[in-house]
Every structure is written in structure tokens, then in C-alpha cells.
Amino acid sequence: MAGKAVFYFEFVTLDQSVGLLKINWTGDATDGSVPSYSTDELFAVGDGGYFSTSGTGKSLTEFLRGCYGLVARTQPGTSPAPTSYGISMNDSLGLDFLNGVVTGRSTSQSERVNIQTNDPLASGLTFAFSTQNTTPSATGILEVKLLFAGNHWLGAPAIS
Fold first, then answer.
1. How many domains does one find in the chain?
2. Distance of CA 55 to CAs 43, 80, 120, 121, 158, Å?
3. pLDDT at residue number 14
4. Which of 111, 136, 139, 151 could serve as a FRET partner for 32 with CA atoms 20 to 30 Å apart?
5. Does 160 map to a domain?
């Protein structure tokens, strides 16, 4: 089976000021690799917060534009990757939205790191392993908590 990543998004506050991007990933059955994905190529599927290359709704980039990164959490799966794997989410300038801190992830413990981005997201992101997983069929989860300040396309109220 080829490696893959599945993208979900949901708001975690009623005023839609804080959201959670969740990425469930699985390594290739032969070499453990996980393909990179661009948020420009992932589109909403229905109303369930799921994004796919075959979706027909708004792009994940359009949905996330203007948000700030707060916290990233990694969780090893039932077949964990090696400790040395790292994940990046680079913007169009090649800057890591995760600030380069999602590296050296644990194979047995969930870990949380502050990413605290200073600039709002203005372009698409490319999700990729900065240090590629090499464990066949390894699984894991990346969750990124996001702050939506001001008015974004869903019309959330400005935060004062």
C-alpha cells in the first residue's frame, strides 16, 4: 500500500477563533515513505471537515488563510515511526509554518510543542516529512492548533 496522509479540520471554539488541523498519516508498506501534499491541491469534501484531492469545495489553503499557528502535537500510531522523523509545513517562500520544531518525534509518547507563528498564513502549505519516515506501514497523527484573528472567510468575529 502506498503511503498517504488524510487531512481534517474543525473549529474547537464556538466563535470559530480557534481551529484544529488534524493529519493522519501512514507510511508506504515497502519503504515507509509518506508523500508530500499541498494545501492548494486539497479541497473540501461535503461539510464534514475532510479535505481530499478529489474534493470539490474550497481549498484547504483558502480555508486556512489568515490563521496563526499556536501548538503542534504529534502522536505515534500503533506502528510508530523512528524517533528521528520530522514534519514540516512550508509556505510558498520555503518557510516552515511549524517553525522547525516538529523534529525528533517520540515513538512512544505524544508530544506537544509551541509553534507561535508571528505572521498570518498568506499562501498554501506543503506538508512533508523533513526527515523521511523509513518504517514500513508506520502511522501517526499531527495536530496543529490554529488561531483565526480578525475576519476570515467564515465570518468569525474579530478578537479584541
1. 1
2. 5, 29, 25, 22, 29
3. 84
4. 111
5. no
Is the pTM for the entire model greater than 0.85?
yes
In a domain, 107, yes or no: yes
The CATH number of the domain holding residue 121 is: 2.60.120
Judge whether 154 lies within some domain: no
The answer to whether residue 158 is domain-embedded is: no
Angstrom distances, CA of residue 2 to CA of 32, 83, 103, 132:
9, 21, 23, 14
**Domain of 72, in residue numbers:** 4-148
Nearest Cα residue to 75 out of 32, 113, 132:
113
pLDDT in tens, 117-152: 888 898 999 999 877 777 888 899 999 999 987 644
